[in-house]
Amino acid sequence: MVVLVVATASDPASIGPAAAFLAMPGWSPGPPIPEGMESFTNGNVRLLKHERSIVAEDDLDRRWQEATGEAVSEVIFLSKHTAVSNRPALTVHPIGVPHLREDETPPQGGRPGWAGVPNPRIGPWFRLMQKVAADQGLVPEFEITLEATHHGPLTSTPTMFVEIGSTQEYWGRQDAAQAIALVLWKGLGLEEGNAVGTWLGSGEKVLLGIGGGHYAPRHMDIVIKDGVWVGHLLSGYSLPMEAPPQVNGKSSGEVGGMWKHSIKVSYEATKAGFPGGEVIAHLDQKSFKGWQKNAITSYLQEQNIKIGKPNDFLCKKI
């Protein structure tokens, strides 16, 4: 099984970290693959470079196996991050657009209603990224943060995005690219042979974040602690809820919208990413109105999904 790291030459925040990663020892040309792509190999790591949009290249894991005969255990995409704040940032997040209806077109890849299998390294690498960024002098200029689940492309294996934000000025920063390359180098075990965030299926608890903003601050307050695993993070926009009609001043009927589907497929994908783990929902309570919180809590109980408090997620170090 190989780890597939994917970069595109069309994105400076993607090709910069890839070039810094390739400058580290041990690389050799990888197997020939079609479609004008280049590949490089280092141990069980494969770096794939192409020139197209990073979110439009569906099924690269499957296509790699078909082209090379090598099964892919996980995919890590290198990409730019954009934000209204324009603040410099290093981010990591799972992928999917579970809240979109079938008749909606995903703005940045993926398939409507789909949640990718989250890479178990997301939580451990978020913490590793904080340490590397601090050691490299990027903090406090750069914010180190998780992002909620959003965008494509389609994959079948555990996947995450590692990004540099948030404007052209920072996408091409060599020090940020070097920090990302160090996270890859250390995180995949190429430095000392001990990868960071390898899931061993030991029955540990995994956080499924529900509610809050795009940067999931209340979930991040938990994930920042050593030993916490995290799967999908569903911000408020991934939980579209339509208030039930009022009859004599009281709500009557079901809460509409794609929120149930979004929770269900994200829970199932998180379970798939952490086989043998216990996936527990963590609610950003303050982000919901009363009727929303009641509906979500009832649905989670119906689905036998446990709701946890912050201390419920603290595990042994990983």
From TrEMBL:
GO biological process: D-amino acid catabolic process
GO molecular function, a single term: metal ion binding
Keyword list, A-Z: Hydrolase, Metal-binding, Zinc
One Pfam family linked to the record: tRNA_deacylase
Matching PANTHER family: D-AMINOACYL-TRNA DEACYLASE
Protein name, per record: D-aminoacyl-tRNA deacylase
